[in-house]
């Protein structure tokens, strides 16, 4: 029996993890359980980025989504419900239209996947992507970068305004 | 300017939190029912009685001599003070005016040592409440030395039953004065160490200054006494204002809170008054120790305590404040009614007034600065 | 702004002071460590001259000890104890007997022997009140005048609570028989047997039972105690040999009826009614409350005829 | 800088097995090594912490439990078997789960925290070439992975179904998320100067120039901001408000016992070691000998030890000193309040970091053009 390529096996395992945990996110009746499943989804996606030799993006994925957004999600779920009776649940509504809509989306995606001419690089360079990212961000994409910065800055100031103590 | 959202709109609820009866910082089996909004405390209700021992009712079935050890057990951190307070009240009931001056000197010396040891606990535990663990072990180490002195004098380390109505249980051992002076020489620099480690620490000041401010009028309205009252800037000390025993002979000051680090009457002031009071106690001890007169400590001891019909109320300044004994005698060897006004009980009642609106951590700080003893509150 | 900067500077300064201090303690640990390694090093007990003069007592309160040879059985210490941890029995020789109780070391003639002198150290609160009234100075906290005989012992411990009950009396059974108090011996033996059998415990349980079922009458708990103890003590006293006490009423199943009956029982007892008169009274009371039915009446009547 | 993983794969090549199997084999060896490092570190650190605490408080600390009958010999280093006995006790203890707790999450939470610490260790260099996997984005990876632990803390607090635990979790979340910012900004400053995210390159830059802590006044300040922030990130006193034993009983750990609690402890001390090693690598020259600054040469005969062994020694010496300082903090200072902690982060550290970032850029521009 030929030994299958472990890289492929690992990739398939990761895909399984992502899809499985994403499924858990949607179906779990407990919101906190959903949020925890999301953790595995994010981790799996970070691992996929590593497969693409995008180590910087992978680390960013963990920092932003796991360390930031997921924390805030769990934080919000915890704080907006009573802890005493722990009835944090989510329900499904409008199942039939939802299934139809997502089915159409799935078909569209398949269509896109099979009709795209994928560029396959057999010998990817094992070099850091950080330098390229930095040069692109501060060169070609400087304007979008700055616009996003201003958006974030205004969000920051807004948050500070909202959370300020009441001043008489 | 910035309106906080109406809670009813976003459907936020307040949470009731039970702090105690088993909690590291309630100083015993006190239970605090805290209503919190996030970290901010909106209402505190102290629930007491977990240590209730029917002290007052029990005393009606005990002879006057037998009450003395139970009085000690009320405030177990300042047992000498409670014994002294009870002895003074029974002497008043019996009409004993004059005691041998050796007795008075020994009583005052031991009471001041007890004040230092009790304040050491208060300081160390307050440090523990705000998170500093090292000052606690240092103060307990020094308190241990005072307890050694007490053990030498009385034979017991915590609950002494040494001061009896009309006299003392034993005389002082001959080496006591030297050992006591030795201790004072050792102890004075230690206070500076505590100050360097805790009192002037920036984090400690941030945690305690301006927190739980108790204005003078609030303190008086709630009947707060002792260092907590003096921390609010009210120079009221029974040792000065209604001198009992021989306190009028000594020269000492009554330290009050001055708001050095924040507002007058904050937790830091209540804490610092205790540090200053230890210094004043050392002052009294330095005056009293060399001039203990000779004499028999048991000459005024009544053979049998059977007071005439009547009632008295006597007050005494313990380490925690003004303890009062009301005794009504029916002419028997047991009191027909004994009522104790305990200082920590009155001090605790002010908790909600001064710490509502602060955070959970601050409730602990305020509670620590009030320096309560549950044995005395529940009796 | 200057306040902001000053705050930071003060903070850094105070942190350095504090850290210096703890480092100083860390480095001078050899001199500063205050711990005593307990089983290897013992707490130094304060010393005092040991003598018989009260001012020379060693005042250490570690354990009560009695020099029973010196005890004259005056019961002063028992009375002084606020927690009743001392229990003393004394037997006087009958008049005209030539029994010699002995002399104390103070040359006092003893007038009675002490067959029981127990101190329950688990109850003792070390208040020292029993030591001072003793006329013969024979009870003291170990470390007292007879210090050379008894080592100061502050670490006594036992595996069972019972082990902390110390018996100091040395009077043998023979001594008690010699003095002519066989009754005392019998009584003691009976008590001991009862204790081993656990009858006292049973009594307590029964008593609590009846108290809880008859709570409607506040006097019952107090009054029930002698009744529960009756089988032992009351046998010769009972005038009418009818086996009827408050527990006999328990056959009534309805709680309210039973309560009324018990109330009536206590009323009868207060009125010093006994035997058949008592049962009649109870029946009458139940009838008045219209709670009487035939079963109860018959059973109660049955008590009149002796054993049920 | 080559990584231990590559080295192991080369080493195992003689077996002639398939490359992918070699990778799997080679992964397990460093994983075991990391686990051992964590366990040994926790065992020793707990013992040292207790002794440090005891000596600062004029006590003796553990004195009774020995190792194979050896009680530590000297009076001041007695009880060396104490933490091993404690570990055995914790492993054999009953595992208590509250009735209304979310049992699955309560089991999962300690492992998430553990995995966070474990994954971080992959990129932590113990010496030159002594790193499991040498990432190009080393520092960034470490920051990313150390932020995973906070989810474990929140879950632990939430799933216990205890109000105290919930408070601990809320505080932990706010605290750790906030303090990641000053940590990121201070490390960013180093990255700007060194021009690389790779830890090996950063140490190489320090070898070529000078240690970062003495490079400029701004990096000097940055070191202290970094160090204090990581003390907060690892929940140590004076920033231990999530567990604050005098307020919240034990915060998010209140309902945990036995083995799960031991895992929390393991991770806490592992995190302490990680942040100390990162501080020593980034700011204190890593495996560079401090003797070189003082122009003291090492004897020729010792040069055999150069490379991994001596480098390991220097890294660990610097890191363990920082761990000691953390313990020293803990036994000296009171605890801050939640809002004061946030004040310190947002109104002191972050402004200072931003100013630092600005000034260090100017400093580098000037020193780069004028002095070089």
How would you portray this structure in words?
The complex is a heterotetramer of chains A (168), B (379), C (308) and D (372). With 168 residues, chain A is an all-alpha fold. Chain A folds into two domains: 1-84, Four Helix Bundle (Hemerythrin (Met), subunit A) (Up-down Bundle), CATH 1.20.120.1200; 127-168. Chain A has helices at 6-27, 31-51, 55-79, 95-115, 130-138, 142-162. In chain A, helix 1 (6-27) runs antiparallel to helix 2 (31-51). Chain B is α+β, with helices and mostly antiparallel strands and 379 residues long. In chain B, helix 4 packs antiparallel against helix 5 (101-129) and helix 5 (101-129) packs antiparallel against helix 12 (267-288). The termini of chain B are far apart. Mean pLDDT of chain B is 85; it is low at 1-5. Chain C has 308 residues and is mainly α. Chain C folds into three domains: 2-32; 64-183, Alpha-Beta Plaits; 207-304, no CATH class. Chain C contains ten helices and five strands; from the N terminus they run H-H-E-H-E-E-E-E-H-H-H-H-H-H-H. In chain C, the strands form two sheets. A three-stranded antiparallel β-sheet of chain C has the order 2-3-5. Chain C has a two-stranded antiparallel sheet with strand order 1-4. In chain C, helix 6 runs antiparallel to helix 7 and helix 8 (255-270) crosses helix 9 (275-288). Chain C starts with a helix and ends with a helix. Chain D has two domains: 60-92, no CATH class; 98-367, no CATH class. Helices cover 64% and strands 0% of the residues of chain D. In chain D, helix 1 packs across helix 2, helix 4 (103-121) packs antiparallel against helix 6 (149-159) and helix 6 runs antiparallel to helix 7 (163-194). The A-D interface holds A 3, 5-7, 30, 32-33, 36, 39, 55-56, 59-60, 62-63, 66-68, 70-72, 74-75, 78-79, 83, 86, 127-128, 130 and D 18, 20-21, 23-24, 100, 102, 104-105, 108, 112, 135-137, 140-141, 143-145, 147-148, 150-151, 154-155, 158-159, 161, 163, 166, 169-170, 173, 177, 180, 197-198.
Strand and helix layout:
The complex is a heterotetramer of chains A (168), B (379), C (308) and D (372).
Chain A: H1 6-27, H2 31-51, H3 55-79, H4 95-115, H5 130-138, H6 142-162
Chain B: H1 7-10, E1 15-19, E2 31-37, E3 40-47, H2 55-59, H3 64-72, H4 79-94, H5 101-129, H6 134-154, E4 163-164, E5 167-168, H7 176-199, H8 202-208, H9 216-221, H10 227-231, H11 238-241, H12 267-288, E6 310-317, E7 322-329, E8 335-341, H13 343-349, H14 351-355, H15 360-370, H16 374-378
Antiparallel strand pairs in B: 1-2, 2-3, 4-5, 6-7, 7-8
Helix pairs in contact in B: 3-4, 4-5, 5-6, 5-12, 5-15, 6-7, 7-12, 12-15
Chain C: H1 2-27, H2 29-32, E1 64-66, H3 76-80, E2 86-91, E3 113-120, E4 139-141, E5 165-167, H4 173-179, H5 182-197, H6 199-213, H7 220-233, H8 255-270, H9 275-288, H10 294-304
Antiparallel strand pairs in C: 1-4, 2-3, 3-5
């Amino acid at each position: 029996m030929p030994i299958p390529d472990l890289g492929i096996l690992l990739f398939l395992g990761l895909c399984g993890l992502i899809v499985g945990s994403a499924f858990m996110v949607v179906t779990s009746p407990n919101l906190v359980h959903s949020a925890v499943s999301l953790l595995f989804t994010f981790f799996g996606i970070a691992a996929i980025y590593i497969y693409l030799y995008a180590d910087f993006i992978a680390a960013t994925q963990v920092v932003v989504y796991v360390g930031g957004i997921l924390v805030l999600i769990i934080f919000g779920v915890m704080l907006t419900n009573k802890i005493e009776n722990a009835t944090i649940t989510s329900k499904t509504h409008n199942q039939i239209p939802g299934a139809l809509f997502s089915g159409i989306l799935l078909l569209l995606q398949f269509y896109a996947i099979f009709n795209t001419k994928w560029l396959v690089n057999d010998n990817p360079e094992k070099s850091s992507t950080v330098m390229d990212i930095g040069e692109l961000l501060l060169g070609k994409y400087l304007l979008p970068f700055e616009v996003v910065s201003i958006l974030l800055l205004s969000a920051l100031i807004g948050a500070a305004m909202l959370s300020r103590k009441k001043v008489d | 300017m910035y309106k906080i959202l109406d809670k009813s709109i976003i459907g936020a609820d307040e949470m009731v939190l039970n702090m105690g009866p088993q909690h590291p910082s309630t100083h015993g089996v006190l239970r605090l029912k805290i209503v919190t909004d996030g970290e901010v405390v909106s209402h505190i209700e102290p629930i007491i009685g977990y240590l209730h021992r029917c002290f007052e009712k029990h005393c009606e079935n005990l002879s006057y001599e037998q009450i003395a050890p139970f009085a000690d057990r009320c405030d177990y951190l300042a047992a000498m003070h409670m014994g002294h307070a009870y002895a003074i009240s029974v002497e008043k009931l019996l009409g004993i005016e004059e005691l041998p001056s050796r007795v008075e000197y020994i009583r005052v010396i031991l009471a001041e040592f007890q004040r230092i040891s009790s304040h050491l606990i208060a300081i160390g535990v307050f440090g523990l409440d705000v998170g500093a663990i090292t000052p606690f072990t240092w103060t307990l180490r020094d308190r241990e030395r005072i307890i050694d002195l007490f053990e030498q004098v009385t034979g017991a380390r915590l609950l002494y039953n040494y001061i009896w109505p009309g006299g003392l249980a034993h005389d002082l051992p001959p080496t006591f004065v030297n050992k006591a002076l030795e201790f004072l020489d050792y102890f004075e620099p230690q206070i500076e160490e505590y100050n360097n480690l805790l009192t002037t620490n920036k984090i400690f000041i941030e945690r305690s200054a301006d927190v739980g401010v108790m204005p003078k009028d609030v303190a008086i309205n709630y009947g707060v006494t002792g260092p907590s009252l003096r921390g609010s800037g009210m120079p009221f000390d029974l040792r000065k204002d209604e001198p009992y025993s021989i306190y009028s002979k000594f020269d000492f000051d009554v330290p009050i809170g001055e708001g050095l680090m924040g507002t007058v009457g904050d937790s830091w002031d209540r804490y610092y008054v205790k540090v200053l009071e230890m210094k004043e106690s050392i002052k009294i001890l330095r005056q009293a120790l060399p001039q203990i007169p000779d004499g028999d400590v048991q000459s005024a001891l009544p053979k049998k305590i059977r007071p005439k019909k009547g009632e008295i109320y006597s007050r005494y300044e313990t380490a925690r404040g003004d303890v009062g004994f009301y005794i009504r005698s029916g002419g028997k060897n047991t009191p027909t009614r004994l009522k104790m006004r305990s200082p920590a009980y009155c001090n605790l009642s002010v908790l909600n007034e001064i710490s509502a609106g602060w955070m959970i951590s601050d409730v602990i700080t305020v509670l620590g600065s009030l320096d309560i003893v549950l044995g005395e509150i529940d009796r | 702004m200057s306040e902001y900067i000053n705050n930071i500077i003060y903070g850094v300064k105070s942190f350095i002071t504090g850290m210096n201090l703890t480092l100083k303690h860390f480095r001078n640990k050899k001199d500063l460590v205050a711990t005593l390694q307990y089983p290897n090093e013992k707490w130094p007990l304060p010393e005092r001259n040991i003598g018989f003069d009260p001012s020379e007592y060693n005042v250490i309160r570690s354990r009560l000890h009695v020099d029973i040879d010196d005890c004259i059985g005056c019961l002063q210490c028992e009375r002084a104890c606020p927690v009743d941890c001392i229990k003393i029995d004394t037997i006087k020789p009958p008049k005209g007997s030539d029994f010699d109780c002995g002399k104390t070391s103070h040359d006092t003639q003893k007038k009675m022997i002490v067959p029981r002198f127990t101190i329950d150290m688990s109850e003792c609160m070390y208040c020292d009140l029993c030591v001072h009234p003793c006329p013969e100075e024979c009870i003291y906290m170990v470390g007292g005048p007879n210090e050379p005989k008894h080592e100061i012992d502050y670490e006594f411990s036992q595996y069972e609570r019972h082990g902390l009950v110390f018996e100091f009396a040395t009077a043998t059974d023979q001594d008690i028989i010699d003095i002519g108090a066989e009754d005392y011996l019998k009584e003691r033996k009976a008590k001991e047997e009862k204790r081993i059998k656990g009858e006292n415990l049973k009594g307590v349980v029964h008593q609590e039972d009846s108290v809880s079922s008859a709570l409607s009458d506040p006097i019952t708990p107090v009054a029930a105690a002698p009744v529960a103890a009756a089988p032992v003590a009351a046998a010769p006293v009972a005038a009418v040999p009818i086996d009827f006490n408050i527990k006999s009423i328990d056959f009534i199943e309805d709680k309210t009826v039973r309560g009324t009956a018990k109330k009536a029982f206590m009323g009868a007892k207060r009125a010093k009614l006994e035997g058949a008169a008592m049962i009649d009274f109870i029946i009458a009371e139940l009838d008045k409350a219209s709670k009487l039915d035939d079963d109860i009446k018959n059973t109660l009547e049955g008590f009149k005829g002796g054993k049920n | 800088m080559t990584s231990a993983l590559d080295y192991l794969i080369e080493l195992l090549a003689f077996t002639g097995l398939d490359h992918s199997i070699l990778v799997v084999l080679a992964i397990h060896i460093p994983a075991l090594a990391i686990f051992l490092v964590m366990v040994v570190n926790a065992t020793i650190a707990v013992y040292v912490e207790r002794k440090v605490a005891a000596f600062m408080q004029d006590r003796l600390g553990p004195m009774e439990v020995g190792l194979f009958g050896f009680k530590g010999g000297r009076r001041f280093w007695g009880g060396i078997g104490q933490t091993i006995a404690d570990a055995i006790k914790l492993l054999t203890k009953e595992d208590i789960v509250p009735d209304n707790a979310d049992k699955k999450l309560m089991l999962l939470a300690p492992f998430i925290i553990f995995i966070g610490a474990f994954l971080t260790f992959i990129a932590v260099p113990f010496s030159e070439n002594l790193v499991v996997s040498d990432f190009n984005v080393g520092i960034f990876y470490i920051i990313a992975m150390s932020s995973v632990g906070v989810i474990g803390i929140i879950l632990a607090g939430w799933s216990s179904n205890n109000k105290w635990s919930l408070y601990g979790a809320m505080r932990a979340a706010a605290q750790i998320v906030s303090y990641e910012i000053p940590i990121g900004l201070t490390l960013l400053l180093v990255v700007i100067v060194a021009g690389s995210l790779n830890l090996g390159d950063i140490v190489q830059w320090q070898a070529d120039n000078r240690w970062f802590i003495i490079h400029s006044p701004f990096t000097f300040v940055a070191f202290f901001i970094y160090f204090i922030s990581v003390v907060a990130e690892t929940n140590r006193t004076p920033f231990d408000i999530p567990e604050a034993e005098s307020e919240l009983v034990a915060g998010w750990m209140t309902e945990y016992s036995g083995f799960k609690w031991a895992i929390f402890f393991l991770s806490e001390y592992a995190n302490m070691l990680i942040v100390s090693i990162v501080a020593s690598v980034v700011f204190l020259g890593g495996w560079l000998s401090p003797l070189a600054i003082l122009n003291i040469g090492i004897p020729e005969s010792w040069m055999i030890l150069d490379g991994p062994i001596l480098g390991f020694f220097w890294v660990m010496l610097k890191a363990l000193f920082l761990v000691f300082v953390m313990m020293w903090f803990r036994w000296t200072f009171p605890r801050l309040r939640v809002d004061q902690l946030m004040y310190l982060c947002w109104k002191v550290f972050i402004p200072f970091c931003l100013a630092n970032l600005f000034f260090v850029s100017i400093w580098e521009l000037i020193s780069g053009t004028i002095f070089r």
